[in-house]
Amino acid sequence: HTLQKAAVCRRGGVGSSRCNRMCFALCSLFSGLEGDADLQFLLEGGDLLKVRSSSWKKTRYLKLEPDCKTIWHESKKTFKSKQTFSLDDISAVRQGRQSEGLRKYTEEQVENRCFSIIFKGRKKNLDLIASSEEEAKQWVTSLHKLISNMNNLSRQEKAEHWIFNCLRKADKNSDDKLSQKELKDFLRMINIDLDDEYAEILFQKCDKSKSGLLSGAEIEHFYDLLTHREEVDVIYGEYAKTAGYMSADNLVEFLMTEQRERATLADAHKLIEKYEVDEKAKEKKLLSKDGFLMYLHHPESLVLKPEHKEVYQDMSQPLNHYFISSSHNTYLLEDQLKGPSSTEAYVRALVKGCRCVELDCWDGSDGEPVIYHGHTLTSKILFKDAIKAIKDYAFKTSDYPVIISLENHCSVEQQKVMAHHMSSILGSDLVTAPLGDCMPTGFPSPEELKGKFVVKGKRLNKLEATFAPEKGYHAQNVEVFLQHFFLASAGNLCNLFTSTFSVQKTKKLKLAKELSDMVIYCKSVHFHGFEDAKQNLSFYEMSSFKEGKAVKLAEESANGYIHHNMDKLSRIYPAGLRTDSSNYNPVPLWNAGCQIVALNFQTPCAEMDVNQGRFVCNGKSGYILKPSFLRDGATEFDPITLTRGPWLQHKLLHVMIISAQQLPKVNKKKSSIVDPLVKTEPIENNGFNPSWNQSFQFEVYVPELALVRFVIEDYDSTSDNEFIAQYTLPFNSLQMGYRHVPLLNKNGDPLPAAGLFIHIIVLDAE
Ligand SMILES: *[C@@H]1O[C@H](CO)[C@@H](O)[C@H](O)[C@H]1NC(C)=O
Ligand SMILES: *[C@@H]1O[C@H](CO)[C@@H](O)[C@H](O)[C@H]1NC(C)=O
Ligand SMILES: *[C@@H]1O[C@H](CO)[C@@H](O)[C@H](O)[C@H]1NC(C)=O
Ligand SMILES: [Ca+2]
């Protein structure tokens, strides 16, 4: 374990508290868990039956590699190269027949022996059957334990873990020593393309024993040279005015001057107590450079205000006063024409905090309604399976209500089946009557609707009718003639099929009373202008707008739209032309107060990054309270003309992009090295620790609506730059001073070791 110790115990020396702490964190992953049966179990591994279809079920040997991070996955065909995946790629491990594949291809009696490994991104699930119930349980508990253990490591520990793994992989002949060739491979792995001469110099500098191999302390030295953060040294040096250390007083000065935090001596003592790794320094109430780095990496010190991470907004306002994280055609995993539909897509969207999901319902065989993109080749899933998945995953990330948006194309018979499934699966969590005993005059709040499902769809009559029985409403399955019905739905569909629609335009839709009655707070109606809506529509009657129409309203009558959205809900959906499931910019629609701005969640793109950034705060609840100038009935706010008013708070945002750490490779080709660019000068051939020191200034006029996005691209002089990583957050949630920005990959999943280091100041412009 020389390499490991080198990585772990480099500065403090064996026995120091830093070393112990790091060793504990890492060794509990690598070697120190002799006593831990779960880890031992995974390292030994075992045979499992992998399920791909009814006929394809094959035995596979799975085990954890000694890096405790990679799962090795053997095919019986020996000539096939071994397959592996990283624990980092796992999004969930589910016990039982909790995947589409297992439900479809296995019998109920194996329920207790089944489990599934679900991956991030688009990688297919691994559906497995163990030989006994105990064994299945053991796999699931062990994997859960290891994953949560790994997620518990601090950013710095993750970074060191990453480097250690690269070192271990580079040591091809496992002799715990690094040859010059192995060293070069290692540098490539961590994204540094040193030229041969410099690599040689570095190697000679560290190879004190002149053996031609680096071992033990030599690797430590080499590692130190690599991980050295000169920019942090400079900052530390400026404030470390007490015998080369930062005293509590020095720390207060740093916090007040640079971080713009109101800090007392007591706060500084607490920070030293929490982050100092050297016991001797801690005793003297001093912060060492290592302790300072620990502080800078801690989640509370990152660029996002820690107090905004929790639910911090008032959740007791009416539902339509919030932006609601919303998805379009939620069932699709890929494009809108021939891609697969999956209940997994609902799980992914809900786990990402989405609070409005969409179901396109059509008649299926055997009387069971199905979900797919009508008139296309997208595959089908059962309506009831989608509802079950929604029920199971609705409140894993957020407790606040989920809106089930129904696009109903079913016969009355199958609509009754839909109503039956919703009421039997969702039970009392389904809102089937207004809260309270009388006709409501406005929306309930997210707080009041916690844990509830709200159906959005067509309704036969006004909700008021249920409170006025004397008017006698008893009709069953009344025909509603929806003359605009197909015009409206066509917006959801590919233009290839519009010709079919012109023929069907006059088709009538019958609505089952059972289904109609479930529509309480979100009744779909057509939009005939703001004036009509104001005079003729009740608060719960809401319209859906195709993106083009909505953008036009948001540009031409923004203030009218804002007032409309103070009384009602608006849903926006992508144009039918977007058959590739691309997205539109949600920002202008939020600026006009629209709540349900539905995006194709399955598509990695800048618009989804922005959506994730919009909803990263407030406990990832999927609800963000609109600023008061979008809720106040007297508001004159117009995001286009931007007249004076309380919304106008002209600010200057100064950002200095200092450096980045451990940017991942985007091109798996071994020889390719990332050339990172942060809208600055590109830094050539260094993705490990590029440094820029470039300052920028931005003007911000409406801070409450502004979002800030950091994007890192790989610069290419001959073609388009390639995306590496990004992070987006609300302007008002920025912390000032020296901050690390966590980085997300194109799917929005965190890159644990990577980061951007910046300095931020926000000033009033006037
Ligand atoms: C992870 O950290 C939390 C809080 O610090 C702790 O309660 C939990 O037991 C830790 N989990 C593991 C697996 O170490
Ligand atoms: C940025 O500043 C740091 C600290 O002063 C320095 O070590 C580094 O070389 C600088 N980088 C560039 C590209 O100027
Ligand atoms: C309200 O509805 C009635 C009946 O459909 C219609 O005549 C009237 O023009 C509508 N009001 C507005 C302002 O559009
Ligand atoms: Ca070696």
Automatic annotation (TrEMBL):
UniProt binding sites for Ca(2+) 4: I673, D675, N685
Task: Please name the GO terms that the record assigns under molecular function.
Answer: calcium ion binding; phosphatidylinositol-4,5-bisphosphate phospholipase C activity
- Chain's gene name: PLCD1
GO process annotations (BP)? intracellular signal transduction; lipid catabolic process
Its taxonomic placement starts with:
Eukaryota, Metazoa, Chordata, Craniata, Vertebrata
Q: Name one GO cellular component term.
A: plasma membrane
Q: Which Pfam families match?
A: C2, EF-hand_like, PH_12, PI-PLC-X, PI-PLC-Y
Q: What positions does the entry give for substrate binding? A: 50-77, 456, 458, 544, 571
Give the protein's recorded name.
Answer: Phosphoinositide phospholipase C
Kinase keyword on record:
no
Q: Which residues are glycosylated?
A: S209
Q: Where is the active site?
A: H328, H373
What PROSITE patterns does the entry give?
A: C2, EF_HAND_1, EF_HAND_2, PH_DOMAIN, PIPLC_X_DOMAIN, PIPLC_Y_DOMAIN
PANTHER family linked: PHOSPHOINOSITIDE PHOSPHOLIPASE C (PTHR10336:SF199), PHOSPHOINOSITIDE-SPECIFIC PHOSPHOLIPASE C FAMILY PROTEIN (PTHR10336)
InterPro entries xrefs: C2_dom, C2_domain_sf, EF-hand-dom_pair, EF_Hand_1_Ca_BS, EF_hand_dom, PH-like_dom_sf, PH_domain, PI-PLC_fam
